[in-house]
Amino acid sequence: MNAAVAGQKGASYLTLREAELNDRVRGAYDLMGPICRLCPRACGAKRMAGQRGTCRAGRRLKVASHNLHFGEEPAISGHGGSGTLFLSHCNLSCVYCQNYPISQLGHGSHTTSERLGDMMVALQERGAHNINWVTPSHEAAHLLDGLARARQKGLTIPIVYNSSGYDAVAALELLEGVVDIYLPDMRYGDSETAFRYSGVRDYPEVNRRAVAEMHRQVGDLVTDDEGIGVRGLVIRHLVLPDGLSQTDEILGYVAREISDQTAISLMSQFFPAYRAGQSGQIGRRINGKEYRDAKRIMVRHGMERGWTQDMD
After folding, report:
1. Mean pLDDT across the stretch 27-45?
2. How far apart are the first and last CA of the chain?
3. Strands 131-134, 82-87: parallel, antiparallel or unpaired by DSSP?
4. What is the DSSP letter of 264?
5. Engineering a disulfide at 203: which of 26, 165, 194, 239 sits with its beta carbon 3.0 to 4.6 angstroms away?
6. pLDDT score, position 70
7. Strand-pair partners of 62
8. Does domain 5-307 have CATH number 3.40.50.720?
9. What does the pLDDT average to over 283-311?
10. Sign of the C-alpha dihedral computed for residues 14, 20, 26 and 29 taken in this order
11. Where are the beta strands (DSSP E) in the chain?
12. Domain boundaries, the chain
């Protein structure tokens, strides 16, 4: 499929004055404390005082890994790799999470915003096309703080915000003019399925508001002459067994309300990780027919930009 149209490189945050970027940092820390409202759960944890939130994160930033990643969408990984920063913990509790040691068990090491900035610059020096914040929703304050420090040390490549799509608009507004590429999931079309498998009933409405805000900020995906993404929205949709991901409803919504030019990454890689094997309905891989049906739905809604996967 055709992924995007050609455009020019240039990280958005470089156009912000240093004082304005620092204002964004302060605004994000204000959402984090004295009671945390960084994500839609608004659990009210006193994270700045060391109390853990529903996401299980506390005051200190925890990073599971930072490395070049070549398995993202072609426009993200390109030929040089995406500079991924995997943040520990998550504001969802998905029973099938493939990264559960990081997201649910909290594997990783505590670090500082200064060190986080160094990680970003080191990934740029290794040839990364972008800095890819993975599971960032509960750590926007630390990430903005690290970015401000990294820019002072010479960071110039785009920022990718790679989330579950369960994001607070108030936090996203602080990222306008900072994030270049939004890479959210759109997982569920109904609240009961969202609650059963990810622990939040309001996922569909929160997700749609968040994705609409992301698109307002960055528009449809734009790539450079090499096909590397420089700006825009890419939506990931993981096909689940037995129609649980409600592909028709979600892609229909995107085509009607967001843009039929949205780049869609239609993912076939579901397998029953973590605790999914305890559920009969979601305790299996999807089959070829389920994925072929999802691809037909994508075509029927006119979603011609993006990527599909081989069932292998």
Report:
1. 95
2. 19
3. parallel
4. E
5. 194
6. 97
7. 110
8. no
9. 94
10. negative
11. 5-6, 61-69, 82-87, 109-111, 131-134, 159-163, 181-184, 222-223, 229-238, 263-267, 306-307
12. 5-307
